[in-house]
Design brief:
- β2, α2 and β3 form a beta-alpha-beta unit.
- The chain starts with a strand and ends in an 8-residue tail after the last strand.
- It has two domains: 153 residues, Rossmann fold, CATH 3.40.50.300; 117 residues, no CATH class.
- The chain is built from nine helices and nine strands.
- The protein has 288 residues and is of the alpha/beta class.
Length: 288
């Protein structure tokens, strides 16, 4: 029987992950008191001819005594159970935005600042995160992308290195994304904005992509960037990095950056045992 503990930061995607795992055939229980973990595990494992072969248990700071979780997991493993931990990570900026949009208070700071609750929760969960089998950073993930990552781990059983790479196009006129790890400037390429028939199109349109990619410099940029990332990513993984945001910028974030972000995404997708997602921040913004 496979037991998966789903934990992580409040607002990081634990509830969504549990729902997806349930759709994948897992028996799911959320907000389980840690004191009941061993009893429930033992009960499920001892059921004769049970149809329940995959179990996902949601545990977080709401259960209280979260510091007891590492010891409880170690005890289960000592008894021979296969127990894996999925930790849902997220940037502070994204968590704060999610709380503001949902108008909910943080469980560790119900009447105070969300930032304080997040900081306290990170301290409480630091050991659990350090020992987790899988870490998924949901900061830039769409729902379908999160589902794809869970399927990679729990359905296809592929090797997983906990790094999520985001390829993000943007426009310098709208500001550099604050969560960027690498910023690449592609304003050296001719701007399709000054081609009348392309001005109101974007890099999502084939005509714009054909225009940008016709220049040899575009291909050379992609080759050199791919080569750089083939060196950097394994070393980031070695150092335990879980999120890498590669921001590609042009003037307005509609033409050149979108085109090259899409092409770089195609090259990195499936290249290694890490997740890759694509996002266009300014493709719908007005102007160049």
């Amino acid at each position: 029987m496979r037991f998966v503990i789903v934990t992580g930061l409040s607002g990081g995607g634990k509830a969504t992950s549990l729902k997806m795992l349930e759709d994948m055939g897992f028996f799911c229980v959320d907000n389980l008191p840690i004191s009941l973990l061993s009893k429930l595990t033992e009960l499920l494992a001892q059921q004769p001819n049970s149809e329940v072969q995959k179990v996902a248990l949601g545990l977080d700071v709401r259960t209280g005594n979260v510091h007891e979780l590492p010891g409880a997991l170690a005890e289960l493993k000592d008894h021979g159970y296969q127990v894996e931990t999925l930790f849902m990570e997220c940037s502070d900026e994204t968590l704060i935005r999610r709380y503001k949009e949902s108008r909910r208070s943080h469980p560790l700071s119900p009447e105070g600042r969300v930032e304080d609750g997040i900081a306290e929760e990170r301290k409480l969960l630091a050991q659990i995160k350090a020992q987790a089998n899988y870490i998924i950073d949901s900061s830039n993930l769409l729902t379908r992308e999160l589902k794809e990552e869970l399927e990679r781990i729990f359905i296809r059983n592929e090797e997983y290195t906990n790094l999520m790479v985001t390829i993000l196009s943007f426009g310098f006129k709208h500001g550099i994304p604050t969560d960027s790890d690498l910023v690449l400037d592609v304003r050296f390429l001719p701007n399709p904005f000054y081609v009348e028939e392309l001005r109101h199109k974007t890099g999502l349109d084939q005509e714009v992509r054909d225009y940008v990619l016709q220049f040899p410099e575009a291909g050379e940029f992609l080759d050199k960037t791919e080569d750089l990332l083939k060196f950097l990513i394994p070393n980031y993984i070695k150092e335990g990095k879980t999120s890498l945001v590669i921001s590609i910028g042009c003037t307005g974030g509609k033409h050149r950056s979108v085109t090259l972000a899409m092409e770089l995404y195609k090259r990195l997708k499936g290249l290694g045992h890490y997740g890759v997602n694509l996002s266009h921040r300014d493709v719908k913004a007005a102007g160049t």
